Amino acid sequence: MKTILSIAKRIRMEFKHIEDAQKKFCDCITWLQHWRRNNNTRVRPECSVYFCSNKATMGGIVVNCDKEEEMYVTPVCPKHYPYSYIDHFQIKKRFIKLMVSVKELEGCGCQ
Ligand SMILES: [Zn+2]
Ligand SMILES: [Zn+2]
Questions:
Q1: CA 56 to ligand 2 centroid distance, Å
Q2: Which of 9, 22, 63, 89 is the Cys-Cys partner for 68 at CB 3.0 to 4.6 Å?
Q3: Among 20-24, 51-55, 105-109, which is the least confidently predicted range?
Q4: What is the 102 CA–ligand 1 centroid distance (Å)?
Q5: Three-state DSSP class for residue 109
Q6: In what order do the strands lie in the sheet with 58-64?
Q7: 67-85 per-position pLDDT tens digit
Q8: Are 4 and 33 in contact (CB under 8 A)?
């Protein structure tokens, strides 16, 4: 998380969805739940994609286009669903801070 933040300060990072990221390390039922638990919020967030203000309906699994090894969860709306939205995109700054690694366990209560 710290690494991704410091990169974000230098350049405008681009992200893309990873379509097949079904492997879960915790017992969260959805990726949006995983994101919420680790951000300690019950609020349904807005879509984290830059310039989009729709309500998020699911958690998308994304990677930094320059550094694909680490997968993160970020909230997305139906327009930016992983299965249909294949373009690269930017994520709102305040949501970059809130991105949660798919392997994060502490906030899920699974450590
Ligand atoms: Zn979880
Ligand atoms: Zn959106």
A1: 7
A2: 63
A3: 20-24
A4: 7
A5: coil
A6: 15-17, 58-64, 67-76, 100-101
A7: 888 899 999 999 998 778 8
A8: no
